[in-house]
Write a structure and sequence with these properties.
By secondary structure, this protein is α/β, with parallel strands linked by helices. The protein has a single domain, classed as Rossmann fold, CATH 3.40.50.300. Helices cover about 50% and strands about 10% of the residues.
Length: about 220
């Protein structure tokens, strides 16, 4: 249970557009929602339940990889197009996806011809995405991610294979190792629970507000 809120400065006074990222099981959507609720910002969140191919992808990834990937791409682009038309200085925003990382999934699941087609479509749509002021990358060991996915018990995720989750975690690590488009805070969530523990949430917010430079790392233990 979350304890009583601790008074903390709003990170949105410093960063008007924050994106929380991380592999499946990292907690990006939960953290983005909590940030939006705590500081009264608008949220732009992934809508996996709206993808009619996703459950079939988890059952037969080879057959449904391309339609799943393209549906998510168009869905995300449409969400970000709406965001790009808004004045981010009057309405702070938190999201749970970065369009730049979209090809990461494509490279894991598509064959060469499909990947070429996907990349052409991605390249034509990519400039419409606004650049965030800060990206928070939530990371954890693959075994931790696997345990969290199993524990939350979402039906369609029951068919996600452990090798896929491990490959995904590794792909995220490599992606953010080279990421330099926006300031980046890397957060190790192995021993940090900013969703259920108010003290952890407050520590994370302090890291955001006190961050200096383009890249920082935060970990407990």
């Amino acid at each position: 249970m979350t304890s009583s809120p601790i008074t903390v400065a709003s990170p949105f006074d410093k960063y008007r557009h924050i994106v929380v990222e991380g592999p499946i099981g990292a907690g990006k959507t939960s953290l983005a929602r909590r940030l939006a609720e705590r500081f009264g910002t608008q949220s732009v969140l992934e809508e996996p339940a709206g993808n009619p191919f996703l459950e079939r992808f988890y059952q037969d990834s080879r057959r449904y990889a391309l339609p799943t990937q393209l549906f998510f791409l168009f869905q995300r682009v449409n969400q970000l197009r709406d965001l790009a038309q808004q004045d981010l200085f009057t309405q702070a925003t938190v999201g749970d996806f970065l369009l730049e990382k979209d090809p990461l999934f494509a490279r894991l699941t598509l064959d060469d011809d499909e990947l070429k087609l996907y990349q052409q479509i991605f390249d034509s749509l990519r400039p419409q995405a606004p650049t965030p002021d800060l990206v928070i990358y939530l990371q954890a060991q693959p075994d931790t991610l696997i345990e969290r996915v199993r524990k939350r018990g979402i039906d369609m995720e029951s068919n996600i294979s452990e090798p896929y989750l491990r490959a995904l975690a590794d792909a995220y690590s490599r992606f953010f190792y080279h990421f330099d488009t926006a300031p980046l805070l890397i957060v190790n969530t192995e021993h940090l629970n900013p969703i259920e523990r108010e003290e952890d949430f407050a520590m994370l917010i302090r890291q955001l507000t006190e961050m200096r430079g383009r890249r920082s790392f935060f970990s407990l233990g």
